[in-house]
């Protein structure tokens, strides 16, 4: 039976026994375990780099999950670090799994650029997703009609086929909320989201009805932030995992997105999200707000 090692880090055979469906998270898991084993062996990054004849920066990228893993490199390094044979063999399997394309990659780079590819992969392997949305309903909670209206406005030069692909991707991403063992979602929305009509009144009515239904799901917490809360000017998403991987923060902008996984950075954004709790409507009050908003769109 696989078990976690005494150093508190998940071993590779432990990760393999409880696999994530996300290649992105598997890559992170292997990289972090490699770093743990290297440090435990007292080996410096430059010595590891010399062993496989690469740059120090490549070792860093591998350990941070920012570079695709090659089986030969991983196996050579783990043997250099003195990892047991069982762990080396588990690494072989995990590297192969981490290099498998995610289901979302079939949509192509136009619909799923690299900066967005990573978010989907992270959310696929998450245990908790915390998000704050300023302008729109979060993608994981959008109806098909609302998502279509958003895509049409957001991509005015896109043809119908492109719009359909973007909407289909968004609907497919929501499967994680229905999947057994999928993540919990804790979403904060700015109150202006209810006032900002996206699409027709019928679209808004359907979207609000959907939010009411989703707010009653056991793995979803939905709250509206008070209108005078300005600490977070941009949408923020924090992703947490069920295994020993640091939280990752995602902040989207008009040109792409930024990811933060340093301890001080994630603690900063986690504190900001925590502060929303003190000035947000409760989940029960949020449903009441949605009920009143629904009346406006009838």
Quick take:
Helices cover 51% and strands 13% of the residues.
Describe the model.
- This protein is of the alpha/beta class and 298 residues long.
- It folds into 2 domains: 12-98, 434 Repressor (Amino-terminal Domain) (Orthogonal Bundle); 103-296, Endonuclease, Chain A, CATH 3.30.870.
- Helices cover 51% and strands 13% of the residues.
- Strands 3-2-1-4-5-6 form a 6-stranded mixed sheet, sandwiched between helices.
- The longest helix has 18 residues, at 23-40.
- The protein is elongated.
- Mean pLDDT is 90; it is low at 1-8.
Shape: elongated
Question: Which strand-content bin applies to the residues?
Answer: 5-15%
The total count of strands amounts to 6
Tally the helices: 14
Q: Major sheet: size, sense and barrel closure?
A: 6 strands, mixed
For this structure, the CATH topology of the largest domain is Endonuclease, Chain A
CATH class designation of the largest domain = Alpha Beta
Topology:
Blueprint: H1 12-17, H2 23-40, H3 45-51, H4 56-63, H5 71-80, H6 85-98, H7 108-111, H8 114-124, E1 126-133, H9 144-154, H10 160-173, E2 184-190, H11 192-195, H12 201-215, E3 220-225, E4 236-241, E5 248-253, E6 256-260, H13 263-278, H14 283-296
Parallel strand pairs: 1-2, 2-3
Antiparallel strand pairs: 1-4, 4-5, 5-6
Helix pairs in contact: 2-6, 3-4, 5-6, 9-10, 12-14
């Amino acid at each position: 039976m696989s078990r976690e090692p005494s150093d508190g880090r998940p071993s590779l055979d432990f990760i393999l026994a409880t696999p994530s469906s996300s290649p992105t998270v598997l890559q992170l898991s292997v990289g972090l375990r490699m770093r743990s084993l290297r440090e435990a062996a007292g080996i410096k990054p430059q010595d590891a780099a010399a062993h496989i004849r690469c740059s120090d920066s490549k070792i860093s990228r591998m350990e941070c999950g920012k570079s695709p893993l090659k089986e030969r490199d991983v196996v050579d390094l783990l043997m250099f670090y003195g990892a047991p044979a069982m762990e080396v063999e588990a690494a072989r399997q995990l590297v192969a799994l981490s290099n498998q394309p995610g289901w979302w990659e079939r949509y192509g780079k136009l619909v799923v650029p690299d900066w967005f590819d990573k978010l989907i992969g992270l959310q696929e392997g998450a245990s908790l997703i915390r998000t704050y949305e300023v302008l729109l309903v979060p993608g994981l909670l959008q109806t098909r009609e609302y998502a279509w209206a958003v895509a049409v406005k957001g991509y005015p030069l896109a043809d119908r086929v492109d719009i359909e692909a973007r909407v289909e991707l968004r609907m497919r991403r929501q499967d994680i909320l229905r999947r057994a063992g999928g993540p919990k979602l804790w979403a904060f929305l700015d109150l202006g989201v209810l006032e900002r009509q996206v699409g027709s009144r019928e679209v808004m009515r359907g979207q609000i009805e959907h939010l009411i239904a989703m707010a009653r799901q056991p793995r979803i917490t939905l709250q509206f932030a008070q209108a005078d809360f300005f600490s977070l000017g941009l949408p923020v998403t924090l992703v947490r995992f069920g295994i020993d991987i640091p939280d990752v923060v995602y902040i989207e902008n008009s040109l792409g997105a930024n990811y933060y996984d340093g301890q001080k950075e994630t603690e900063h954004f986690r504190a900001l999200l925590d502060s929303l709790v003190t000035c947000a409507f409760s989940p029960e009050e949020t449903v009441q707000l949605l009920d009143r908003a629904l009346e406006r769109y009838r």
